[in-house]
Amino acid sequence: MNPQQRLAESAKRAKQAEARGDDGLAAREWRSYRLIRDAARDPEELLAEGFALSMQAIELAAAGQ
C-alpha cells in the first residue's frame, strides 16, 4: 500500500470512529493520519517547524514568569 492509500485509509477509519461516537479511537486514528502525513514531509521542513515551536514555547514560558 502506498503512502497516499495509507493516508486515505487512516482518514476513513478516523471518520468512521467519529461517526460511531468513539472519540478515543477517532483521536488515535487522526494521530496515525498525522504521523503518516508527516512521514512524507521534507525532514528539513519538519526540523524548522520543530525549532519554531520550541522558540514559541520558550517565549511563552518567559512571558509567564
What topology emerges from the helices and strands here?
Elements: H1 3-20, H2 23-39, H3 43-63
Helix pairs in contact: 1-2
Give an overview in words.
The chain has helices at residues 3-20, 23-39, 43-63. The protein starts with a helix and ends with a helix. The protein is mainly alpha-helical and 65 residues long. It has one domain (3-63). The protein is built from three helices and no strands. Helix 1 packs antiparallel against helix 2 (23-39).
Features:
65 residues, mainly alpha, 86% helix
Number of domains: 1
Strand content: under 5%
Q: Which of globular, elongated, flat, extended, rod-shaped describes the shape?
A: flat
Instruction: Tell me the total number of β-strands.
Output: 0
**Helicity range:** over 70%
SS summary, helix count: 3
Order of helices and strands: HHH
What is the structural class?
mainly alpha
Taking all Cα atoms into account, the compactness measure Rg is 16 Å
Poorly predicted parts: none
State the distance separating the first and last CA atoms.
49 Å
Average pLDDT number: 94
